[in-house]
Specification:
3 strands, 48% helix, alpha/beta, three-stranded parallel sheet, single chain
Amino acid sequence: MNIKVLDFQLVVLPDEASAERRRALFATNDAMAGLGWAASATWVVAPEWRVAADATALAARIGVDGIVLLPIGSAHARLAAWRRGR
């Protein structure tokens, strides 16, 4: 049995407006890189409360069996603080 696992980058921001600005920045960087694929296509950029849903949607869209989240920068601390405050 083959199991496909997606290992992707996670950027957690405080609100949707910040996430939208960061996604736009990543899209611009992808366009300027001139690659045939968008590096940010395997990134989840979302507020804390939406990380699980966005990660699950990305996994379903790509067609993998599981996901591994790798928080970048302050994302780890932000997620931990959010989980404590729920």
